[in-house]
Specification:
Elements: H1 2-24, H2 30-43, H3 56-59, E1 63-66, E2 69-74, H4 82-86, E3 103-105, E4 113-114, H5 119-122, E5 128-130, E6 136-138, E7 152-154, E8 159-163, E9 176-178, E10 183-185, E11 200-202, E12 209-210, E13 224-226, E14 231-232, E15 248-250, E16 257-258, E17 272-274, E18 279-283, E19 297-299, E20 304-307, E21 321-323, E22 328-331, E23 346-348, E24 353-357, E25 367-369, E26 374-377, H6 381-386, E27 387-388, E28 393-394, H7 403-412, H8 432-469, H9 476-481, E29 482-483, E30 493-494, E31 505-506, H10 509-515, E32 524-527, E33 532-537, E34 543-550, H11 556-568, E35 577-581, E36 587-593, H12 600-603, H13 620-639, E37 645-646, E38 655-657, E39 663-665, E40 672-673, H14 682-687, H15 705-721, H16 732-742, H17 765-781, H18 792-800, H19 802-806, H20 811-819, H21 825-831, E41 846-847, E42 853-854, H22 883-894
Parallel strand pairs: 2-3, 3-5, 4-6, 5-7, 6-8, 7-9, 8-10, 9-11, 11-13, 12-14, 13-15, 15-17, 16-18, 17-19, 18-20, 19-21, 20-22, 21-23, 22-24, 23-25, 24-26, 25-27, 26-28, 31-35
Antiparallel strand pairs: 1-2, 29-30, 32-33, 33-34, 34-36, 35-36, 37-40, 38-39, 41-42
């Protein structure tokens, strides 16, 4: 009986506690009730997340209360209604009425507009302000310096401009300040040295200039300092060596000069240092590494550092990667005192002026890049497996420097050179006996190729004479296809094709005018570059798209070219042409099938759940599906049409989507046969009349499949990053954005891609690998050298098998590696990202986790030559099989 009484009392106590808790969690303030309702309306939030009749403290997603008042609001991840989606803006004025608000998190929630000044005056209790990836623009308001309780301020990945407000230095409680990936200018405020509790400062990827202000060394709590991708100048202040808690230091991609300060040796807790792509000069002090006992990553590449490599480099117990490539280091490698840790590290000493013989202990290292130096002597087979040794002065090995180059280097320094092990003077790095043995063969080859060259010259002369003689004789076949030239134009203009098969039904002008309400503005979809597009409804109720081509305003040649394309192609990946109307001489009408989901640009953020009118970007499965569909269309044009066809306008506006989000590529008016088509014989190509170089809508200067691949790479980046509009433009801003974004794509670091991934994209671990794979494919497509971009059929194959791209130990990869001397298609394809580039217009070199330079260059057999990497030559020319090996590769895939 007593036990029952205790149980009843406990139940009553628990009931009263729950009632009290419920009472405390109920919103008591009518002012805050009203403020939240207005915020719900101004942001366009769904009733499912913020139900209008429910208590916000208990039932609204992301709202937290204490003692009946709102303390935290998070709209990150919430979706808008259709109305809210149509007019997103920075409309949060009612927050001013939430006097106890401590946290406002809108990360990834679209809030275009500027941060109001009243934030710093009305939200005095704010501790966390998270506006990353919100499309916020304008300047950082100086009033934010009044938020004395603020501990975390995230404004990264927006469109902020202007100078950094010096008042932010007043935020003495601030722990995290992230202003990266904006368009901020000016200098780093000196007041930042007063933020005594700051642990992370990220100002990377802006346009900040000037110097690192004095006093930074006093911020002893700083653990992460990232100032990369700016325009900082002068020398690196030695006082940074006072940052005893520093874990990560990134000063890359600036314009620092001078030598590295010895004081940096005091950074005993430093885990990673990156000072690449600057203008640092001078030597590394001998004791530079002695004080950095916690160093794990050292990147000093692409500077002007010289002198000998400090011997302390081998003594770092936690070292994982050191990259000092592309400097002026000289001398012999310091003797290696092997320990258990250093042998697991990755070393990149390439492109310096190191010399002497190689210590046999290099065979114990994990990976070592010593290419582009002047090492001499012999190396063991074991060493060759772990090291990249091309472009040195080593014996026996292929792809070494010339004898003259090596002799000059050693003689200038008064050093003895072994002449590649030859017994006497020679001009070849190979044994004299081999040269004599092959001399006769060389003479024969010279004679053969000399004769062929003479024949080619004679053929060219004959062709030129024939052209000159027949200049005034019209081509009969051309006459059949061309009409009279318009006034003032010396060139003939094509007529409509006499054969209309394959161009769909014939419509009357009256039918199509009625379908579009006399081509009213209300039915206008857009003004295209080859005609105006209208939405129309035929008499049978079919919705169509009608292109109205006014030949007085648009190019007739483009219009005829599009008709010819439709006659040639037969692939479901292109927008079907349903019919035409050629009644009027100067006005032509083409009728296409209507695509319910429009183009990729308009459907990317379209609602996918019409019932609750949610605002959501395309999910990853749909994005990958779209990428594969577009790649199939381009692969068809490039590899299944004869001659190959080039689209020349690949962008999000040209990728149309049907009701199931299947790709239907449009905008074929700019398409044409590839320049310099290889399907014809030599005489045919010589006889071909020269064509005027015509710039495509996307900036193409010629019809080349490699240009389509480049544009498709930008589309893939749009799918990964969510930044639409990249593929439609090629201005300086876009090029700079590409350069910055590609630096986050590494074949060895999956986590890097999360820094550029669309914040609204929610993926699990497997899908993240697919996102990573697509980013890698995009980078290979964006190689600045057209001849080094992948063929579209290989791009398609990579997108269809994304996990094979990043999982090199897959069975198919292993099979190909065993069955062929070349690596599997995906290893070869993406191995090229380890290559360095000497091109002035290449993407800036990045260092992957294996310590090798990667510039996004992907080799292709279309170049007709070898492009040897300075950092990993063994994968060069394996990027895509040479023509002779393609059949073998595909035969292996079939098995």
């Amino acid at each position: 009986m007593e036990a029952k009484r205790v149980l009843v009392l406990a139940a009553l106590v628990l009931f009263f506690i729950q009632c009290a808790a419920a009472q405390r969690s109920t919103l008591n303030s009518s002012v805050e009730w009203s403020a939240l309702r207005r915020l719900r309306s101004s942001l366009g939030l769904r009733a499912r997340d913020w139900p209008i009749k429910a208590d916000p403290c208990r039932n609204w997603t992301g709202v937290e209360c204490r003692d009946g008042q709102v303390t935290a609001i998070s709209v990150s991840g919430l979706r808008r209604t259709r109305v809210g989606r149509m007019n997103p803006r920075f409309a949060v004025d009612t927050l001013a009425n939430l006097t106890l608000l401590e946290t406002f998190n809108a990360s990834g929630f679209l809030l275009p507009g500027s941060i109001p000044e009243w934030f710093g005056f009305r939200l005095q209790g704010l501790q966390v302000l998270d506006l990353r990836s919100c499309a916020v623009n304008g300047a950082v308001p100086s009033s934010l310096g009044n938020l004395s309780r603020l501990t975390h301020l995230y404004l990264n990945h927006n469109n902020l401009t202007g100078n950094i407000a010096s008042s932010l230095g007043q935020l003495t409680e601030l722990s995290v300040l992230d202003l990266s990936r904006n368009f901020l200018t000016g200098s780093i405020p000196a007041s930042f040295s007063m933020m005594s509790n700051l642990s992370m400062l990220d100002l990377s990827s802006n346009y900040i200039s000037g110097t690192v202000p004095a006093g930074f060394g006093s911020v002893s709590s700083l653990r992460v300092l990232n100032l990369s991708y700016n325009s900082l100048t002068a020398s690196i202040p030695g006082e940074l060596g006072n940052l005893s808690q520093l874990v990560e230091l990134d000063l890359s991609k600036n314009s620092f000069s001078g030598a590295l300060p010895v004081e940096l040796g005091g950074l005993r807790s430093l885990k990673g240092m990156r000072i690449g792509s600057n203008s640092l000069e001078g030597q590394l002090p001998e004791g530079f590494f002695s004080g950095l006992s916690q160093l794990e990553v050292v990147v000093l590449s692409q500077n002007k550092l010289d002198g000998r490599i400090p011997s302390g480099v081998w003594s770092l117990p936690g070292l994982r990667l050191i990259d000092i490539s592309a400097n002026n280091f000289t001398g012999e490698l310091p003797s290696v005192g092997l320990n258990g840790n250093v042998t697991r590290a990755i070393f990149n000493f390439s492109d310096n002026m190191l010399y002497g013989s190689l210590n046999s202990s290099i065979r114990f290292f994990n990976l070592t890049d010593l290419s582009g130096n002047y090492f001499q002597g012999k190396v063991s087979d074991d060493s060759q497996r772990n090291a990249t040794l091309d472009r040195n002065c080593l014996q026996v090995l292929p792809d070494q420097r010339s004898l003259a180059d090596c002799r000059l280097f050693y003689s200038e320094r008064g050093l003895q050179f072994d002449d590649f092990g030859a017994s006497g003077p020679t001009d070849s790095p190979f044994p004299v006996s081999a040269s004599k043995k092959n001399r006769r063969r060389v003479y024969i080859l010279i004679g053969v190729f000399g004769g062929l060259a003479l024949i080619v010259v004679m053929v060219v002369i004959v062709v030129l004479l024939l052209r000159k003689c027949n200049k005034s004789i019209p081509d009969q076949r051309s006459i059949a296809d061309k009409g009279p030239a318009p006034d003032g134009d010396g060139q003939t203009v094509p007529k409509e094709p006499s054969e209309l098969s394959g161009l769909g039904d014939v419509f009357s002008y009256e039918q199509l005018a009625h379908a579009t309400s006399e081509f009213s503005e209300s039915n206008l979809i857009k003004h295209g570059h080859s005609g105006d597009l209208y939405r129309g409804i035929l008499e049978n109720g079919t919705i169509v798209v009608i292109k109205r081509v006014d030949l007085r305003s648009f190019d007739r040649e483009s219009y005829i070219r599009e008709l010819e394309i439709f006659r040639k192609i037969s692939n479901t990946r292109f927008v079907p042409l349903l019919g035409h109307c050629f009644e009027h001489e100067n006005e032509k009408l083409l009728v296409y099938k209507y695509m319910p989901n429009g183009d990729l640009a308009s459907s990317f953020y379209r609602a996918t759940d019409l019932e609750d009118e949610s605002m959501q970007s395309l999910d990853w499965i749909t994005r990958l599906k779209i990428a594969i569909g577009a790649a199939e269309a381009l692969s068809y044009l490039h590899h299944e049409c004869n001659p190959p066809l080039v689209h020349r306008d690949v962008q999000v506006g040209s990728i149309l989507l049907d009701d199931k989000f299947e790709v239907r590529v449009g905008s074929l008016s700019e398409s044409r046969a590839q320049d310099g088509d290889s399907h014809g014989n030599v005489i045919t190509r010589l006889l071909r009349k020269p064509q005027t170089s015509e710039q495509g809508t996307s900036g193409s200067s010629s019809a080349n499949c490699a240009y389509d691949v480049f544009c498709f790479g930008k589309v893939l980046l749009e799918l990964v990053t969510g930044k639409l509009g990249i593929s439609k433009s090629d201005d300086a801003t876009i090029r700079e954005w590409l350069e910055h974004t590609l630096s986050y794509i590494s074949v060895h670091d999956k986590e890097l891609v999360t820094k550029i991934m669309d914040p609204s994209l929610i993926v699990d671990e497997d899908f993240l690998e697919e996102v990573w794979a697509m980013a890698i494919v995009a980078r290979s497509c964006l190689n600045p050298r057209p001849s080094k971009r992948p063929l579209m059929r290989y791009v398609l194959k990579a997108l269809e098998n994304p996990l094979k791209v990043v999982r090199e130990d897959s069975s198919s990869s292993a099979r190909l590696q065993t069955a062929s001397s070349r690596k599997s298609w995906n290893v070869a394809f993406f191995g090229s990202l380890r290559h360095s580039s000497s091109d002035s217009n290449t993407v800036p070199t990045q260092i992957n986790s294996n310590g090798f330079k990667q510039s996004g260059r992907v080799g292709s057999h279309s170049s007709g030559g070898n492009d040897y990497s300075s950092s990993h030559k063994r994968l060069s020319s394996e990027i895509f099989p040479e023509p002779i090996a393609i059949t073998d590769m595909e035969r292996l895939d079939e098995h």
